[in-house]
Amino acid sequence: MKIVFFGSPASAIPSLSRLMEEGHQIALIITQPERPSGRGKKLTQSPVKKFAIKKGISVYQPERIKFDQIAVEKIQNIEPDLNVVVAYGQIIPLSILEIPKHQSINVHFSLLPKYRGASPVQWTLLNGEKTTGITIFKLNEKMDEGDILSQEKTDILPYENAGELEARLSTIGAELLVKTIANLKNIQAQKQNHSQATYAPKLKKEDGQIDWHKDALSIDRHVRAFTPWPSAFSFFQGKRVIITMGKGIKEEVIHSANPGEILKIKKDGIEVCCGQGSVYLIESLRPENRKEMSAYSFSLGVNIKPGDLFS
């Protein structure tokens, strides 16, 4: 098939790569414009654009595709069989969705109608789901409400964070995508049950701050959901500390300490009191303007003792 591909982050690349391996013609890639990134706010190309340049595929980067007539004209001139969308990052108008012969399909990282929206992987972990999966569906003018073509379920692994889960889902999604396209003419699309819909709104950096008044299980979900982005953080001695790995300690219950209070410092990490007297073990972290390290190594380099507080 002749395909126009829409995608931006690294999680879109496995689908793009598999389409090419299957012999589909990628006539055009549409991705997000360069955005400021890092401390220096240097303009950075999306991972999909870097991949496209490497493979010699034409790229177009509309600032707002909803109002971009050039995008419409480019796709009309291509006369594609199909638009494929994987984590593009903008709402695509009907004027584009309806151009191809087989219209447009999306690879979504949840089992729709659950977790419609921009951050399905993070909200799946935040809510403590045991399973998740991939949905491939027909795009329409509403957000993630189109008819379902195929789905594949997978269990969430113990201690799996958002980055790890998204990478695994991107591989599952790529395989399901090529199977779905191969059988597209024979699939009977199923309407979503909108009464069962849940939503996964976009997360902001400030949402990553840890509330130590919550129980240790909730904090464990929070750290996993916000790793690697936008990161789960707290403050120690007035400086931001990003928590990158840890776990709740089920057998310990403390009633004499305050939420955020450091209870023990040992080689496997720093124990912190949480809500309901539960205990969270910080195993690794990243201090402000420094590299990731074990929590114990951090304790050796700063003046830290039981009774100190993460705020």
Describe the structure.
The structure is a single chain. The protein has 311 residues and is an alpha/beta fold. 25% of the residues lie in helices and 27% in strands. The chain folds into two domains: 2-196, Formyl transferase, N-terminal domain (Rossmann fold, 3-Layer(aba) Sandwich), CATH 3.40.50.170; 205-301, Formyl transferase, C-terminal domain (Methionyl-tRNA Fmet Formyltransferase, Chain A, domain 2, Roll). It has helices spanning 13-21, 47-55, 69-78, 94-97, 120-126, 162-182, 216-225, 295-301, and strands spanning 2-7, 25-30, 35-37, 42-44, 59-60, 82-86, 104-108, 131-138, 148-155, 232-236, 239-249, 262-266, 269-273, 279-287, 293-294. The strands form three sheets. A seven-stranded mixed β-sheet has the order 5-2-1-6-7-8-9, with helices on both faces. Helix 1 packs parallel to helix 6. The model has no long low-confidence stretch (mean pLDDT 96).
